[in-house]
Every structure is written in structure tokens, then in C-alpha cells.
Design goal:
Blueprint lengths: L13 H13 L4 H15 L14
Helix pairs in contact: 1-2
Amino acid sequence: MADKKKNFVLRIDEATYKALEKWAVDEFRSVNGQLEWLIDKALKDAGRKKSDFKAKKPE
């Protein structure tokens, strides 16, 4: 089952958007994709979201 995505409006200043846009282009992502990646990484780093990676059990 695919995850549903919530739409919302984000207001940021132009300089921040330009920096984000350049970063996204450098990593071959859209600005939206870059924001999703950045938020997901921040949540995982802060321990607020479980990682998608599941460690293999030792045999």
C-alpha cells in the first residue's frame, strides 16, 4: 500500500528557495523531492522516525 502524502503550503524567503533549488539540482532532485529527503533525514537523525533500513539478523 502506498503512503498517502499530505499537501501543505510552505512560505520561505527567496534566498532560501534559491539555495534549496541549487542543492536539489546538484543531487538530481526536484525542490519538492529535496524537501522530502531533508525532512525525512532530519526526523531520522533526531530519532523521531524509524529508519527504512532494517538490519539483517546475524546467521
